[in-house]
Amino acid sequence: MTRFFFHIAYNGKNYHGWQRQVNVRSVQEVIETLLAEVLKMPTITIVGCGRTDARVHASQYFFHTDLSFPLKEDILYILNKRLPDDISVFDIIEMEGKPHARFNATERVYDYFIHTFKDPFYKDISSIYTDEKLNLQKMKDAISLLPKYEDYRAFCKQPDLHNTTFCKISSAKLLFADNGKKLRFRISSNRFLRGQVRIIVQKILDIGSGKFSIHEFEECLITQRRAKLIKPAHPEGLFLSKVSYPFLSLPQKGAFVSLANSWQEI
Predict the structure, then answer these.
(1) How far apart are CA 8 and CA 10, in angstroms?
(2) Which of 154, 175, 177, 248 makes a 20 to 30 Å CA pair with 133?
């Protein structure tokens, strides 16, 4: 059996997340169904590098599968021709040994995009928050606390589903473009918990608008006690944007590359 890594991207608007679930459309189900048809197999199982929530995007995503036969040279063309327009396959890589798409990933990067004005062209790839009185310095100060702590139980949707709520956040920053009308929260870690990024983003926005204090935010990090209201930010602005392995680190492709340019750190 040979293990293949697939490098893909998807717009999550029309999907109930990556993972296959009963009675809902997922990215995994669409890909597995097509692969089985193209490869003439009764079924096929693919293993993704992580989960994404409903309507969340991935500008870079990896999954693996094991096959007992070589892939045809035109398989990349065939898959992209038959997949929906909101899923793309960039690369198919034959691996040595049995590296794991999920467990061997050493770093994941998420980007959350915010625009503060109504724009029909951003509505599916960025979340609109029209509060123009956001205190960006307070938001930045709160974000700077994130790499100083490791237990993120307070910012997890369902902490008891995880064996551990520890995450090693290596970087967290707030960036802006278009004179502050567009914001981008970027965070890197070895792993993330369910709903963690969106919950953090909402709390950062609450700090910016004066509904939550930096002190309360750090208290959650220190005590691991969840805030009274765990409300995640909208899913549309969230991208899983980079996944790295000790043996594989590919550049991002597609329109996200231009979307991610021209930002300045606050």
Answers:
(1) 7
(2) 154
Give the tens place of pLDDT for each residue, 102-116. 999 999 999 999 999
Residue 77 · residue 240 · CB < 8 Å: no
Delineate the domains of the chain, giving CATH numbers in brackets.
2-94 (3.30.70.580), 109-245 (3.30.70.660)
Q: Tell me the H-state helices in 168-233.
A: 196-209, 214-223
Range list of β-strands (E), 117-202: 127-128, 169-177, 182-189
User: How many helices (H) does the chain have, and how many strands (E)?
Assistant: 6, 10
Kindly state the DSSP code that residue 9 receives in the 8-state scheme.
Answer: E
The structure tokens listed for 146 are 């994130």
**pLDDT of 231 strictly over 90:** no
Q: What is the pTM of this model?
A: 0.94
Q: Hey, what amino acid is at 204?
A: I
For the stretch 142-199, pLDDT in tens is 999 999 999 999 999 888 888 999 999 999 999 999 888 899 999 999 999 999 999 9
Active site includes 141?
no
Q: Please, which residues bridge with residue 109 across strands?
A: 188, 242
